[in-house]
Amino acid sequence: MSEGSTSPLNAKREYTQLLRLHEQLLGQFARARDELAAPNTDSLVKQIKGRTGSAPDLTELKTSVEEAIKALKLSQSRIETAIADRLNASVDVEGISNLPVYLQRFLAERAGQPGFGYEVDQDPVRGWIIRWKEYTDRGTVRGYGQICERPYAWLED
Questions:
Q1: Burial class of residue 145 in the structure, from the number of CB atoms within 10 Å of its CB (0-12 exposed, 13-18 middle, 19+ buried)
Q2: pLDDT recorded at residue 71
Q3: Residue 120 burial (10 A CB sphere; 0-12, 13-18, 19+)
Q4: Does the pTM of the predicted model rise above 0.70?
Q5: CB-count exposure of residue 136 (10 Å: 0-12, 13-18, 19+)
Q6: Cα–Cα distances in angstroms (integers) from residue 155 to residues 85, 123, 126, 129, 150, in the given order
Q7: Mean pLDDT for the chain?
Q8: Which residue of 21, 75, 109, 140 sits 20 to 30 Å from the alpha carbon of 93, by its own alpha carbon?
Q9: Which uninterrupted H or E stretch holds 101?
């Protein structure tokens, strides 16, 4: 694989790492904002003014921290939108044109992963059913299950 291209799994992993970094930075900036707004900081500024006659102006610093928080939140929102756009790309299941969106999303999230296999059937009561299995590199089953369009439909009968 060339350096300029990434697989969908690598892209998702990289987006997730970037979101974690955003969360860490957001936490650090929030702590800085809280420290700047804390009563102890105000009393320290008053003490400095009382001793020296001039107070340090923290207004610009507070504004910059707030702007950094807003920029981080905006960037985080854009990343989450990019991830959602990737996940909303529907997976075409051969012969099925009316698979519900949440079942398409389930397949879109997993279908490209190595070792993931699935079957799609239609049940007259429960609707579309996806039966899936995920295998490890050694060929053992990592996980399996089924997802139904209407999982509790049989209770209504």
A1: exposed
A2: 93
A3: middle
A4: no
A5: exposed
A6: 35, 15, 10, 17, 10
A7: 82
A8: 140
A9: helix 101-110
Domain coverage including residue 115: 101-156
Residues 76 and 15 in one domain: yes
Is residue 149 in some structural domain? Answer: yes
Those residues with Cβ within 8 angstroms of residue 63's Cβ, 6 or more apart along the chain or in another chain = none
42 token code pair: 């105000």
Q: How many residues can be counted in the chain?
A: 157
- Burial of residue 103 (CB within 10 Å: 0-12, 13-18, 19+) is buried
Chain-centroid distance of CA 18 in Å reads 10
Q: Report whether pLDDT(88) > 60.
A: no
Strands 116-123 and 141-148 come out as unpaired
Give yes or no: residues 18 and 60 share one domain. Answer: yes
Whether residues 55 and 82 fall in one domain: yes
On the question of pLDDT at 50 being above 80, the answer is yes
In this prediction, residue 56 carries a pLDDT of 85
Whether residue 130 contacts residue 144, with contact meaning beta carbons closer than 8 Å, is answered with: no
